[in-house]
Design a protein that fits this description.
With 247 residues, this protein is mainly α. 49% of the residues lie in helices and 2% in strands.
């Protein structure tokens, strides 16, 4: 939220039309905030909207709906219901949500394997890995890269997990959630499960129906309690007693 008014204006105009009043204010080196209350109010309103996920989803929905309605020659909303926004409070929650999204096509029986799952990040990662000719291009540039466990506490952006272990985790989970390939969870659980203290018993249930188990936040009891305290709540409600992590 530390963007300058000039940066707010620049970012806003990348998405929407600007405003002459704002342009005049920014181009006047002698302008003072107290002399332009309406302009400052508009810029602050733009700031809030640029950080508002509800506003982002509203604009995204309108854009997609216009395209889809034009193709289908119909009217109406693109998505039936309102989107859900959940806070991911720990590493296990991040992994569960990632696996849930990456396995959507497999769970819907639209694909047999993760590499056949179109429009997923796991497919991009596997394609890049297969086509890589050097260590530098093992991961696609269009998604956040896996940086490994050394990334903890470092400012460089990236997912603090191992790429190969995540692919194994998705593949293992996918074999268990497929309706036509139900089987018992193997005894030799992946190392990442134990390292992140993930509850093996509830992991599959959480990944299969991630949105049904958590409402406003996802994580272990400890992290849910901390999140509730930080957001001024007595507790963070869930739809079930399943736990991502043993606490």
């Amino acid at each position: 939220m530390e963007w300058s008014y000039r940066e707010i204006n620049t970012r806003w105009k990348q998405l929407f039309a600007g405003h002459n009043m704002v342009e005049q204010y920014l181009n006047d080196p002698q302008a003072k905030d107290e002399d332009h209350p309406k302009t400052i109010e508009k810029l602050e309103d733009w700031r809030k909207r640029l950080f508002d996920i509800s506003w982002f989803m509203r604009c995204l929905n309108e854009h997609i709906a216009r395209q889809a309605n034009k193709e289908e020659q119909c009217k109406g909303r693109f998505w039936e219901g309102r989107f859900k926004s959940q806070a991911l409070l720990d590493e296990a929650a991040v992994l569960a949500c990632m696996a849930y999204v990456d396995l959507n096509p497999v769970r819907a029986q639209m694909a047999d394997t993760p590499e056949d799952s179109d429009f997923t990040s796991v497919q991009l990662r596997m394609q890049a890995l297969k086509a890589a000719k050097s260590e530098e291009n093992l991961q696609p540039s269009t998604v956040l890269p896996f940086t490994g466990y050394k990334a903890h506490g470092e400012p460089s952006p990236g997912l603090p997990f191992n790429l190969y272990e995540y692919l194994e985790l998705v593949d293992w989970t996918g074999r268990c959630v497929r309706a036509d390939k139900r089987r018992a969870i193997p005894a030799n659980v992946l190392p990442i499960m134990a390292r992140l203290n993930i509850n093996q018993k509830d992991w599959l249930s959480v990944v299969k129906d991630f949105n049904r188990h958590f409402i406003s936040a996802a994580g272990s009891n400890k992290h849910l309690q901390q999140h509730a305290s930080q957001t001024g709540r007595r507790w963070c409600a869930t739809h079930s007693q399943l736990q991502l992590c043993d606490t």
